[in-house]
Design goal:
Layout lengths: L1 H19 L1 H16 L4 E5 L5 H6 L9 E4 L16 H7 L5 H6 L9 E5 L6 H12 L3 E6 L1 H4 L12 H4 L2 E4 L7 E3 L8 E3 L1 H22 L18 H15 L4
Parallel strand pairs: 1-2, 1-3, 3-4, 4-5
Antiparallel strand pairs: 6-7
């Protein structure tokens, strides 16, 4: 069954992440914990399906205040597929050098912040713009993507660098560069992409490690509670508290 083949492929990637990336995940989590302990931000950014890990981590049940999603709608929303904000426009825009520079102008940053970027291939211009601008502003840059698989691929950016070469810390998602993983008879293209599962696996391994580090340091976490499960206590009050803390901290951004 192709369903089992996809599942086996995904499990293999998750196992490889565990076997090879734990040290890098710990390094990334330490940097992020430093930012959150300083009551600053871990800014998160990606394009296309690489925005899914951003939406997954915050706001989210089991997520906590400290992660700031930077989601640029034209680089995110293409479920119209064709017509307004369709796939053609998205593919064009993520390759436009300078767009990321303009995105960065919309926010206030601090050298204590961390920029957390998601890029499967690491070669497209908007993500590289964001990484370079973050470095100029003194932030640590953490990149998650298919780093080993992307090695040798030509960047589209005039800097001559891919995003993994710019990063301070890289976590390799261990996904194949072509992403789709299941071959079909009589078809050139495979089906069953795995990069999203790889990203989400790395995200929660990292965020739980950040939480562990902060708890060990005695830092209070403002967690989004489960407000649908029985026996959750006064989850509404805890959610309100978390959102109030977020609202207060985000004023400077």
């Amino acid at each position: 069954m192709l369903a089992k083949q996809w599942l086996e492929n995904t499990r293999g990637i998750m196992s490889k992440i565990e076997e090879t990336q734990m040290d890098n995940i710990k390094k990334a989590a330490e940097v992020m914990a430093d930012s959150i302990e300083a009551k600053r931000w871990v800014h998160t950014f990606g394009c296309g399906h690489a925005t899914l890990p951003i939406e997954e981590m915050y706001p989210r049940i089991g997520g906590f205040v400290g992660f700031h999603p930077m989601v640029e709608l034209p680089l995110t929303f293409f479920t119209n597929i064709t017509g307004q904000m369709g796939v053609h426009q998205f593919i064009f825009l993520e390759r436009v050098e300078g767009y990321g520079v303009e995105i960065m102008k919309g926010y206030n940053f601090d050298p204590r912040d961390t920029m957390w970027l998601f890029s499967h291939s690491g070669i497209n211009n908007v993500n590289i713009d964001i990484a370079l601008e973050a470095k100029k502003k003194g932030m640590k840059v953490v990149v998650f993507g298919s780093a080993a698989e992307a090695e040798g691929k030509k960047t589209r950016h005039s800097s001559g660098k891919n995003i993994f070469e710019i990063a301070d810390i890289v976590v390799d998602t261990c996904a194949p560069i072509e992403d789709a993983s299941v071959p079909l008879k009589n078809h050139v293209d495979k089906i069953g992409p795995v990069s999203t599962m790889a990203f989400i696996t790395c995200v929660w391994m990292t965020v739980t490690t950040v939480a562990e580090i902060l708890e060990e340091r005695g830092v209070k976490l403002y967690i989004h509670p489960s407000h649908n499960a029985p026996g959750a206590g006064d989850s509404k009050a805890r959610l309100d508290e978390a959102l109030e803390v977020y609202k207060e901290r985000i004023k400077g951004v």
